[in-house]
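Subject: design request, 314 residues
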């Protein structure tokens, strides 16, 4: 039994273990999964001195309330998140992108995200959890990953198997930016849609529906007209692809998406915009902007370079 552990006082909403996800398993129907907002995931691990592919706790809207037992350890929270640290009955307002030490009996209370969806909690050490296909990432739809593929639950205990020896405090000034337009590349079934439907897709606003989760983001707005067929033979899907079912409302496939689908694909979200896309909460307005493949590749490379530069500053 571990001498270092957390008891979950409140599990929060959709709190799961996540890491960089699973590669090369689409052919057997296993999606990539992994942290939804990759940049915030990486920064959380760097702030506590972990390897960048270490497991973290990802939460949506409201995070967990945890009580710690054990020797001193650092933690950090990333995203646009409100949280508090309780030390011997004194509450401290926490700041994102800054590591904090906690000791035996201290509590971390992650109250909510702020006009966003996902936040990340990293501990300076290793969780005692099981890996499946070289990843701990939980996919609740398929019951895959650590914790028997299920989200964390109130009353549960999380054991640690290792604590980092380096407990230096780290911080970085970082602001999560919003994005006006989501840039997209034409999809393989782009010509299934009428000229009017294409115009609507690029010129009108869509609203993020409440019926959105780690599997997909449903949008509501003016209907996109299909003039060929509202169904196709099922074929492979990728993260960020935008399908349009018969009702004309787009669905963006996210990290836990199914690996095949039979709705026509009008576009694919450029990877550079994915981290900010997933942080758009229900009720947010989305507008799409077309870019070509070469521009999408260049923009993503620049985004990756910017991410590495941020990590080097921590």
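Subject: RE: design request

Done. Sequence follows.
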């Amino acid at each position: 039994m571990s001498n270092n552990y957390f008891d979950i006082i409140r599990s929060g909403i959709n709190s799961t273990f996540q890491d960089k996800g699973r590669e090369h398993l689409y052919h057997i129907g296993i999606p990539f999964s992994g942290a939804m907002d990759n940049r915030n995931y990486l920064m959380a691990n760097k702030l506590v001195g972990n390897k960048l592919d270490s497991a973290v706790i990802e939460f949506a809207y409201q995070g967990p309330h945890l009580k710690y037992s054990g020797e001193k350890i650092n933690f950090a929270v990333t995203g646009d998140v409100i949280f508090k640290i309780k030390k011997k009955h004194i509450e401290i307002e926490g700041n994102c992108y800054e590591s904090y030490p906690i000791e035996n009996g201290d509590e971390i209370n992650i109250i909510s995200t702020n006009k966003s969806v996902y936040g990340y909690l990293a501990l300076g050490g290793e969780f005692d959890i099981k890996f499946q296909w070289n990843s701990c990432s939980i996919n609740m739809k398929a019951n895959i990953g650590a914790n028997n593929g299920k989200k964390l639950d109130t009353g549960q205990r999380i054991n640690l198997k290792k604590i980092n020896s380096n407990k230096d405090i780290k911080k970085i000034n970082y602001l999560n930016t919003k994005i006006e337009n989501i840039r997209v590349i034409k999809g393989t079934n782009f010509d299934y849609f009428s000229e009017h439907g294409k115009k609507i897709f690029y010129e009108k606003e869509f609203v993020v529906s409440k019926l959105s989760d780690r599997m997909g983001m449903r949008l509501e707005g003016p209907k996109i007209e299909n003039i060929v067929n509202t169904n196709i033979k099922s074929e492979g899907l990728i993260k960020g692809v935008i399908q349009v079912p018969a009702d004309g409302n787009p669905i963006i496939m996210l990290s836990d998406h199914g690996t095949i689908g039979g709705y026509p694909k009008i576009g694919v979200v450029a990877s550079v915009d994915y981290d900010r896309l997933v942080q758009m909460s229900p009720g947010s307005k989305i507008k799409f902007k077309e870019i070509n493949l070469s521009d999408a590749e260049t923009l993503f490379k620049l985004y990756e370079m910017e991410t590495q530069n941020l990590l080097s500053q921590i």
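The radius of gyration is 20 Å.
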